[in-house]
Write a structure and sequence with these properties.
The chain has a five-stranded parallel β-sheet, with helices on both faces. The chain has eight helices and seven strands. By secondary structure, the chain is an alpha/beta fold. A hairpin with a 6-residue loop joins strand 5 and strand 6. The termini are close together. 46% of the residues lie in helices and 14% in strands. The longest helix has 23 residues. The chain binds BIS(adenosine)-5'-pentaphosphate and zinc ion. BIS(adenosine)-5'-pentaphosphate binds next to helix 1, helix 2, helix 3, strand 6 and helix 8.
C-alpha cells in the first residue's frame, strides 16, 4: 500500500502514523520529522530549511522532493509507505506521481484529516514530542505517565519551536493556500477518504481501518 496523510497542523497525522505503520507494515516518511532532524544536526539541508520552518512557511519544493526521492529508495519502503506531510503543494504531488510512474507504482489512498481550524490551537500548544522517535503527547489529551518524560525511553520531551499561536497562524495560511489544492488534485483521481479528525484518536483509527479495507 502507498498512502498519503494530508491535513492541517495538529490534525493528528503524526499520531495515527505509527498505528497505521505497525498494522500494515509500512515505512513512515514524515518530511517534517526529517527536516527537524536535519535542522538539529545542522546539515546544509537543515540550514536551508530552518528559516522557512521557523516562520511557519513551506520549505522549497526542490528540497523536500529531493528528501523524499532519497528516502523512498530504502529497501524497507519498497513494499509500501505512508507519506506524512508530503506532498504539500500541487508541484510536489506532480513530482511524486512522476517518481512513482518510473517505478511502475502509484498512490492507492489519500487520507484527508478534515478538521475545523478553531480546534487546532489547543492541540498544538499542548503538544510534547520525543525528538529522536517523533512520538507525540498532549498535556491534556494524551499525557505522558510522568510530565515532560517519554514513556518508552525515559528521556525528556520538548515543545516544537513552531508550536506557538503566531507561527500556527502562518502554518494554517500555508495549508489553506498551498495544500488544500493538493486534496482537490487527488479528489479528481477518486482516491481521497475524508476523516473526521476532530474525533478521538480511537474513533479516527476505526475510520482509517474502514477506509483501508
Ligand atoms: P510538519 O512536521 O509536517 O507539521 P504540520 O503539518 O504542521 O503538522 P503537525 O506535525 O503539526 O501535525 P500532526 O497532524 O502531525 O499532529 P499530531 O498528530 O502531532 O511540518 C513542519 C514544517 O516543516 C512545515 O511548517 C514546513 O516548514 C516544513 N515542511 C514539512 N513538510 C513539508 C513539505 N512537504 N513541503 C514544504 N515544507 C514542508 O497532533 C498534534 C497534537 O494533538 C499532539 O499533541 C497529539 O497528542 C494531539 N492529538 C492528536 N490527535 C488527537 C485527537 N484525535 N484528539 C485530541 N488530541 C489529539
Ligand atoms: Zn506531524
Amino acid at each position: 500500500r502507498r498512502l498519503i496523510l494530508i491535513g492541517p497542523p495538529g490534525s493528528g497525522k503524526g499520531t495515527q502514523s505509527p498505528i497505521i505503520k505497525d498494522e500494515y507494515c509500512l515505512c513512515h516518511l514524515a518530511t517534517g520529522d526529517m527536516l527537524r532532524a536535519a535542522v538539529a544536526a545542522k546539515t546544509p539541508l537543515g540550514l536551508r530549511a530552518k528559516e522557512a520552518m521557523d516562520k511557519g512557511e513551506l520549505v522549497s519544493d526542490d528540497l523536500v522532493v529531493g528528501i523524499i526521492d532519497e528516502a523512498m529508495k530504502k529497501p524497507s519502503c519498497q513494499k509500501g509507505f505512508i507519506l506524512d506531510g508530503f506532498p504539500r503543494t500541487v508541484i510536489q504531488a506532480e513530482k511524486l506521481d512522476q517518481m512513482l510512474e518510473k517505478q511502475g507504482t502509484k498512490i492507492d489512498k489519500v487520507l484527508n484529516f478534515a478538521i475545523d481550524d478553531a480546534i487546532l490551537e489547543e492541540r498544538i500548544t499542548g503538544r510534547w514530542i520525543h525528538p529522536s522517535s517523533g512520538r507525540s503527547y498532549h498535556s491534556k489529551f494524551a499525557p505522558p505517565k510522568v510530565p515532560g518524560i517519554d514513556d518508552v525511553t525515559g528521556e525528556p520531551l520538548i515543545h516544537r519551536e513552531d508550536d506557538t499561536p503566531a507561527v500556527l497562524k502562518s502554518r494554517l495560511e500555508a495549508f489553506h493556500k498551498q495544500t488544500e489544492p493538493v486534496i482537490n488534485y487527488y479528489t479528481k483521481k477518486g482516491i481521497v477518504s475524508n476523516l473526521h479528525a476532530e474525533k478521538t484518536p480511537e474513533e479516527i483509527r476505526e475510520e482509517i481501518a474502514k477506509a483501508l479495507k
